[in-house]
Predict the 3D structure of the following.
Amino acid sequence: MSMSRAGCFVIVLVLLWCSPLAAASRPPAEGTGGAVASDERLATEAGLEILRQGGNAADAAVATALALVVVEPEAGNLGGGGLAVIKFGDEVTYLDFRETAPAAAHRETYLDKSGEPVPGASIIGPLAAGVPGSPTGLFELHRRHGKLMWPAVVEPARRLAAEGFAVSRRLHHGLVAKKDVLTRFPETAERWFPGGEAPVPGSLMRLPELAKTLEDYAQRGPEAITTGERAQAIEAASTRHGGILTAADLAAYAPVWREPVRFEAFGWQVASADLPSSGGILVGSAAAILDRLSWSEEPRFGAQRAHLIAEAWRRAFADRFLMGDPDAAKAGATELLASSWLDQRSATVDPMKASSSSNVEPWEKAVTIGDVNEPTDTTHLSTVDAEGNLVALTTTLNGLFGCALYVPEAGFFLNNEMDDFATAPGRPNLYGLVQGEANEVGAGKRMLSSMSPTVAWREGEAVALGGRGGSRIPTSTLQVLLNFWLDGDGLQAALDRPRVHHQWLPDQIFAEGDALSPETKTELEARGHQVTWVGSLAQVHAVRWMAGGQVESAVDPRGGGGASGVVRPLY
Ligand code: DON
């Protein structure tokens, strides 16, 4: 019996409807006066307010980051650190305001007498805190690139803290989820669990102590935090709970301008975070391996692309084992992005069969294979102004609410970034990452990161993006770029698409539930891959600029956060 043409049409429609090709996506926000993408509506609005006042992308980025300290205290921070990649005209810069290890930290800080890791020591409480880089880092970003006066850029955040903001559902849920750990610290319990409970979503939260800090910061710059009474209060709070962070550490901290990782991929120029982050090197080396393997010519949602991208990341992440603070790393962009090395790496990929991570060098010692935990907390923002200047800025406390200690006199949480060191080399950290000696704890060292703030451009067009999600940040950032560059996705659709992840160890492909069809999963398993489903892989926010001044802003639907915003002309 032959099927009617109408019947065929319906079947084709149904197939299209069910295929990822038909994935619906909301449009990105579009305007002409600049754009901001961040985790929180009130923070995005702070950035837009600054753009409307005539501020540039750097002013907007700092205003957004400071507003996140107020409305997203679980990740936005003055008690943590971050990285920013900036493109102003033809000038491309990279600001490293990553935390450093306190002067008293050493290789054995997180080990017991028998050399075993002390459970939780690098995660909970101020012993886990690195020296915050954000107070000086954000100030420095503005000093070099900002246009408005410093107090004007701080003002939206100060106002939010003083006048209050509506507690988001995400903040509420974060507090509830972490209540046990947070309430171990009376300072934290008093501020964030008044009457013993987390404030309900929508309730007005004022943070007068943070408003005061921001007021002083607006007047005096970072010294309002890194010296004097606040620095003493931070040291005292840390010491009370077994930490080693001192006021002297705070005063000695300095952000560093570095050269970003630069590479060309698929017709785009790219700048991303170099050491102390592995992010840009991972994005660059995986992109180069995929190019060599003609990845873009493979069918979009088939097993071959998933296989090759997993193999590319397996190799890129193996080299992460050699990375660490720029002064301690055993290899960096020069070695790992060299054509000869990328050729060699690509040549070892079997187009049909999974390699075993244990055969992918470096393999310096037997390592424990751990699970990748759900991502905890970090926050990314991207800004662009009407002139096409862009900032990609990722900032982190590492875990949700950092080390869980809130310093009342300062009005912010301290990070637990020390866990990003190989606190026990060869053992997996919070993100299941197995790291090498280059990243072992040492006074003054910067711990290795995966943050990947990235700017990419070609004639007449540029994007800024990055994300939260630990080791999944570089793999998500690259997939968004590939969707956008190669497969014709608009900015928002490029963020929405489901993703996969591989990080060398554990030797598994992690896939969002809708990233692979059952047939594709079966085929990957037949090739020797182990496939594990995960809820979501990182959250990426992005902005785009086009010749003529059109801008777009798009945010990741994962995780319930994200607010895009643009400045539209007022008619
Ligand atoms: O710097 C890093 O790589 C980590 N501290 C980032 C942590 C993170 O992204 C957690 N996010 N959700």
In short: The two ends are 62 Å apart (CA to CA). The first helix runs from residue 5 to 18.
